[in-house]
Structure formats: C-alpha cells, structure tokens
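User: Show me a protein chain along with its predicted structure.
Assistant: Here is one chain, sequence first, then structure tokens.
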Amino acid sequence: LISAGAARLVLGLDMGLAVLFGAILVVTGPTVIGPLLRHVRPKAQLGSIVKWEGILNDPIGAILAVLVFEAILGGGFEKATGQAAVGVLKAVLIGGTLGGLGAGAVILLLKRYWIPDFLQNPVALMAVVSIFTVSNLLRTESGLLAVTVMGIALANQKIAAVKHIIEFKENLRVLLISVLFIILAARLQIADLAYIGVGSLSFLAVLVFIARPVAVAFSALRSELNWKERLFLSWMAPRGIIAAAVASVFALELAQAGHPQAEQLVALTFMVIGGTVAIYGSTAFSVARWLGVATPNVQGALIIGAHSWARAVASALHEEGYQVLIVDTNRRDLSAARLAGLPAFYASILSDSVLDEIDLGGFGRVLALTSNDEINALAALHFMPLFGRAEVYQLPPEGERNDDTIPPHLRGRLLFGPETNYTFLTTRFESGGEIKKTEITEEFDYDAFRALYAERAVPLFLKDETGSLLVFAADNPPTPKPGQSLVSLVVPT
C-alpha cells in the first residue's frame, strides 16, 4: 500500500500501474538475501525470519501482481474485487495441491529406486518444470507457489535422500539467475535512464525509510523480537530476480495493450533492485554489528570428538577467546568437558537434526578429531555445504591410507600435517605433550622456534594480528610472522 501510494504521488504513475508496481515490490529476493545472510551472519532467529520472508513472499507477490494486472486489463478494481478473492483461493488450492503431489511423486520415485542415480537430478528438474507448467496453465502465476510448496515438502521429508538434488539445485540456481538477470537487463535502453531522477530516488527513499519500517512494525506486533532485532529487520529488504521477471512480463503485455506508462515499469524496477541491493548490501553488516545482532568475529570452532586431547585443543582455543563447541555421543567425555568449563552438546554429528539444534552463528570452521576416520570424513562432508570446503578439517587417516587413497572431494582438509593422525597425536599427549602459546617476534621468529623445538613441536593454530584464527593444514599451512601467536603441541625433552 505504501509503495503503491508513493508510486502514485512521487512517480506520477496512474492508479492501476502504481498499484501493480506496489504489488511487484512486495517480494524481497531470496537470491540476494542468501549471500547477504552468509556475509552478515545474524542471530539464528533473525536469519530464519529474513530467509523465510523472501521464500514465502515470492509466490505471494507474484500472485498479487497477477491479480492487479488482471484488474487493470479487466476495466478497474471495483469489478475485480470478487475476482481477486477467488483468484487467490484458486492459486493457493491449485499451487498447494500440485506442489504436494509433485513432491510425493519425486519421493516415491527416489524411495523405490525407479530412477538410476545419474538421472535423478534431471528427472527432479523436469518434475519441477512440469509442476510449474501445469499449475500455471490451470491458474496464472500459481506455478511459483506450487514449486515453492514442492521444495519445502522435499526438504523436510525423511523418506528419500535429496542432498545430491539440493547441491545440483544450488549450482543450477546461480547459473540460471545470472543468465536471467543479463537477459532481463538487456531490455533496458540508454533512454530508460531518463526515468531515474529526483522522483525515482525519492521513491526509493520512501521504500527504505518508510515502507519497510512500517511493514516490520506491524508484522512484529506482539512478537518476542526486541527493538534491535526489529530495527535490523527494518534494514533488510533487497529486491531480486522475481521482481525483475514479473515486471518485465507485465510491461510487455501492458505495452501491447496500449498502456502509455508501461515502459517505465522495467526501468523503475531495476532501479529499485540496484538501489536496495546497494544500500542494504553495503550497510547491513555494519548495522548488524552496531545493533549487536550479528557475531562480530566468526572464528569459532565446532569440534567433533570429546576425548582428552580434543578437550585440550578446545581449551586452548577457548582461552584465546574463540567460541568452541564440543559435540560427541560419549556422555562421560562430555561431562568431563563441561567440568572443564567447555560448551558441550550430546548428539550424533551425522544426524540431520543436529543443524537445527545447534546455533552455528559464531562458528567459522569444523575440526573432526575422532578416532574413527570414516566418521571424520562423513562429518566433513556433512558440514561442507554450510562452512565451505576451505574451513572443514579432519585428522589424516590411520595406517597406510593417505590423501592419495581418499579423494579430496570425499573428505575435509587434513589437519596439522600428513602424518598427524589420531594415534600420532594421542602418543604425543600421553608422552607429556602440552599445548603452548608462543609469541612470534622479530627477535624470536618462526625459524628460531623450529630450531629450538625441532621435532618436538607440532604447530596447530595461528592467531594473526586481527584476531583471525588460521589452522595449520597439510595442504597449505600458514607462515607465522612477527606479531602473531602460534599455538602448538610441544613434547618435553
């Protein structure tokens, strides 16, 4: 409503086009919000709210825009009020039903193993396209709602494995959205820049400083969100690809219908997308830090394994001010960790629910330190989509197995060195080894450290001048420099 009013009063659009523009701008693009959330890393509750707002608002905004569009072509909003209510009901029923049926069909095919593994990704893609097409044929723009319901159902079921499909979807999403943005933006002409001026910038200011805060204020009534969290939500509403796509389609059809201001729609939509992404993208992290709703320095370590020397590693990091969390299924070791003042959590790290139960907001890496090489490798694979391959580490395998026999894509980065496996480290600790911190200076540099300790020291971590934690990995160990702190395992003479 606020966007439509501003489009009418500030931009001078006629009433029908102003309401259509306001409906299009209901959406907050999840394609833009996702990378922003990974950068900002707000508290879990805020991240979920912003993410789900973008996911659910896409079909809502598209359906709302279609109803307004039909009202414009149908001769006015007075005649379309009843049609709008029926249209929303049809879209929800058709989209929801087909989305559920599509998800059920895919789950059945996967559960019965009726599809060869190498065809599961393309079959899943064709199922999505088919459900989208059929739903749109039955009710215009209900296809987006149908595939949203289908995706939610597939992601939350426990019957069939869909992780490989999710990874395929993520890669496909980046490719398709990038291409789609280029195709849609190619419609813009140099002459369209004339629509960007004081009026359009004033309209953008209304969206950012009035429409969004008012919408959040009403939405958060009687919620448990504090004022800082509400203020952050008021500063997180970038628009994305759905707004551009819907505006482009409607602009073409309105131009063919002879609407005089239709060509402005695409240029103004891209102005809003570019403006909101620039404003929120460049300031969201600073705002989140200022409000205290984001983790200031995501350097924590999620440690898998609670045995004695894993607790020693966790204690060393904890004493340096880094957030740590030990996860294991051995209650005795977990009790010892808690008695040592270390955060500990009882769970199987391979459980699908562990990601929902643990708040990972302050953690930037995973260290798999168990005595079981297979558990370490599976845990690394489990957390790679969340932390990225660069920050998932595991102990080298035992015995004659090395990094050549286990492909890199099936494990994490090897910790501390190619030979520092569980047995090696256990022997060092049982021989009286202790974790020590050494300040690297101009007078006592890393060469002097190695000359002093020789083979008695195993470098583990490096704390640089900014407080960032660097892990010694077999493939690319950091080089300590003066002003940094070296944490290592040292065995007495």
